[in-house]
Amino acid sequence: MIGRLRGIVAYKAPPWLLIDVNGVGYELEAPMSTFYDLPELGREVTLFTHYAQKEDSVSLYGFLREGERRLFRDVQKVSGIGAKIALAVLSGVSVDEFARMLQAGDITALTRIPGIGKKTAERMVLELRDRAANFGGGGAPWPVPRRPPTRSPRPRWPCSSWATSRPRPRAWRAMPTPRATMSPPSSARPCRPRCADPRAAFFLIPTASARSTMSTSSTQHDNGHAAHGHAPAAGGMALMIGAIGVVFGDIGTSPLYTLKEAFSPHYGLNSDHDTVLGVLSLAFWALNIVVTLKYVTIIMRADNEGEGGIMALMALTQRTLRHGSRSAYVVGILGIFGASLFFGDGVITPAISVLGAVEGLEVAAPGLHAFIVPITVVVLLAVFAVQRFGTEKIGKLFGPITSIWFISLAAIGIWNIVDAPEVLKAFNPMWALRFFMEHGWHGIFILGAVVLAVTGGEALYADMGHFGAKPIRHAWYFFVLPCPVLNYPGQGALVLNNPEAVKNPFFEAVPDWALYPMIILATMAAVIASQSVITGAFSVSRQAMQLGYIPRMRITHTSHDTIGQIYIPGINWGIAVMVIGLVLAFRSSSNLAVAYGISVSATMLIDTLLLALVARALWPTSRYWIIPLCVVFFIIDLGFVIANGAKLLQGAWFPVVLGIVLFTMMRTGGVAASCCVMRSARTASASTPSCPG
Q: Is the whole-model pTM more than 0.85?
């Protein structure tokens, strides 16, 4: 929300301003360029304002020039790097000078701006250079005073301690005010705005989520790194390789078990020509509709200040609804339940991926069957032990390995397609329709296996805060997607030529001389698949802490440049215990595949509903084609849910029960926090004066 604010300058101490508008106090945050030309205390001023609400906390930013506000808004919108970076830019250079730096690609000049690191500067040039020409109109470079304004302690105005969740400076010297009515109050308590509509006054008293934002450790780290934004700032190929190493592991290991599960005795399918082509067509179009179109192309546009995942989508959706309405309540319930199911996915994915890879030993040497489970447990312990080193270092290690894995997937597919090129007919959607016509309504149950090909879509969205949307999109479109698209037909070609290979078509498709190296590579890829959902679980957990739904935990920031790269020890080892317990209980990827899918499909269904609400409220020019697509997505996701729901008594009950338990814990924690805050607010309001002035 943007607008204008006209009133008396009652207080100023960079970066904070207090403007008195007819007796109502408005607290704003402004760049240094605004303070340089701001009139003296007691004088009237007109400011261009930008209003932002994150969860239930409110921020109001003020600018003397329209160009400054436009730059502030566009930088956040394009880059998703947050208000801190935008304020740092405006405090260091003029709008025109910043535009010239972008157009020239002058990384060195950008890094001279306080708070802008090299990687952040590279990210700015990469994403903003094409829009730099639109940043003009900000005015001439601001006059720089000989010495910066004196930083003095700012009094604890009542509307500042509750109106936002930002930390407050403690060592500023008080500045005199020319108006007797603006004397600082004796206590820092919430104020009651004198207006009928608090939102119209740009002033809200937040509920639980604003005041129970983060743990002490999290707040300390966020203060130190907030200036670096939410997504990493490396540019080009290096950033794409890092994303490949972390984000696409889950969806990249799906070929290990998808076709194997589709032709398992559980579904009763014969490996004849038409059935094989029908299943391959379903997997191909599921990948393109659900992952490529829904998640990569559309839903990744819905970021919450650079963060992704179902909790971020829920917070974004709630902003479009009236605060406290029944619709906002229902959206909150859906978001919490979807996040709970995502944790269930995070528990099963590492187990099924590593088990599916290690089971390749049984193809090479059947006598090693007894060692599959112990080897899997050791590998999983190593996966969770290295999480403390951070996403950036893990991405640098895993990126080249994952790239080799995807290239191998494509090579294996081409190797077998040459023997039966007719499998390429599966790209025709008529084979998928023909499959349903031949199998009747029973054919919908095969979607319980097809969904395995698209698992990782939600994890891909949840990991967006670690790398940003653009590198993930480019990596998917130009490198990742073609590899499984070639591998699935390759497995299908092998099954057509050798129906016995349906027991484990992935490893049967590998040439004998490459079998053992492929087992090692598959195990490493499975480790990386675990990484994608683990990092996604960290991101969702932090968002749940900020919203007050789970207890505060210690958060370790693992990057000097990217605030989104975090490690939460409590979540890490909690997932590790459950994953290893699943491996010991189910003991094979086939058994786990029955339990897998219900949590993923239900989360995707909730994502579709929230996406439709966001498109309807926030994307006026795109909603006319996105909302009809949401109807298509809803039908597909509902089919996945029904197909996996049929396996409820065969093992799919586990992620559902786990999701319900986590939902109950998160919902109880959120309600308890809200009640405590409301009780404190009622107690404080009994003796609280109105805003000064």
A: no
